[in-house]
Amino acid sequence: MSHLKIHILGCGSATPTLRHAPTAQIVDLRDKLYLIDCGEGTQLQMRRYKVRFNRLNHIFISHMHGDHCFGLPGLISTLGMLGRRGELTIHGPAGVESFMSPVLSQFGRELPYKVHFNVIDPQKGEMIMEDRSLEVHSIPLKHRIPTCGFLFSEKLREPHILREMIDFYHVPLKEIANIKQGKDYMTEDGTIIPYTRFTRPADTPKRYAYCSDTAFSPSIIPYIEGVDCLYHEATFLEKDMPRAKETFHSTARQAAEIALRAGVKRLILGHYSARYEELNGFMEEAGSVFANVVLSEEGKEIIV
Question: Structure pTM?
Answer without folding.
Answer: 0.91
